[in-house]
Amino acid sequence: MEVTKKKPDSFGLFLSHVKEKMFNLNILKIFLLDLTYLLALPAMACCFLWVMNEAYYRAFGRFKRKAVICTGVVGVTVHEVSHALMASLWGMYVNKIVFFNFDPESKTLGYVNYSYNPRSLIHCLGIVFTGFAPLIVGACLVYFIFDYSGLPNFNSYFQYSYQGSIQETINAGFLESVTNWLSDLYVSFNSPLDVLFFLLCLMIGVHSTPSRADLRGAMRGSFITLSFLFSLWYLMRLFPSYTTTYMRIFEGWMVDFGAAIIQLALISSVFAFSLTIVGLVLSVKKPTTFSN
């Protein structure tokens, strides 16, 4: 009786390989650590900027309108244009845009009204990016303004190493990178034009944080967006032999983008804190009255 060996099922081997990798705790641990390190620093920087901005808005009291107009003509306009631009890029229809309109009753400085299809995966991803558009576009604008004016960008001091993991890169002298960058930035103003460009960046930064309405809108598609990104990244971790090049490029790009957000948050937080001090001083000072 002749016995023939059954050829191994290539698809079955592939599935067993996937199953083995899928539940590899070491891969999962590296994946979660990288994700945490990648998101934590920009998220904390943005939260701190949001707190400083709220303090700035509240500190001016009766002078709030004048203060907001000084920074908002540029900052709020960029904020709303960012929403409209991002919504259009994701295929959503912009119904109305108000660039700047200080309304103390509704507590809005401007708004964008757009339509989307809740059944569309593209639109579900798009509403998240549209909600965070002021932060994304603001960080990119500040980066390009710094680059154009010759001011040092933070990502030049905080570079991603393709030889290590993200957490190794961030742990390797992050605070030292911040200190060196701020020191060089301080001595980089060589002309009044440099100061003007820097003030422009500050006005963009103090109005770059998403509003409560922006966050509520972004939450509608956050689960689908996070699931999509997590799955994509995890699959890249599962098959490093096929995706190493793309993964390193993607991770390096994300680190650079995170550095741009941290840069925006750092300079804008210092500016907002300074404005808060000025606002508190003006609010405490009683208006002068003249009596006959």
Automatic annotation (TrEMBL):
<keyword id="KW-1133">Transmembrane helix</keyword>
<feature type="transmembrane region" description="Helical">
    <location>
        <begin position="30"/>
        <end position="52"/>
    </location>
</feature>
<feature type="transmembrane region" description="Helical">
    <location>
        <begin position="121"/>
        <end position="146"/>
    </location>
</feature>
<feature type="transmembrane region" description="Helical">
    <location>
        <begin position="185"/>
        <end position="206"/>
    </location>
</feature>
<keyword id="KW-0472">Membrane</keyword>
<keyword id="KW-0812">Transmembrane</keyword>
<feature type="transmembrane region" description="Helical">
    <location>
        <begin position="218"/>
        <end position="237"/>
    </location>
</feature>
<protein>
    <submittedName>
        <fullName>Uncharacterized protein</fullName>
    </submittedName>
</protein>
<feature type="transmembrane region" description="Helical">
    <location>
        <begin position="257"/>
        <end position="282"/>
    </location>
</feature>
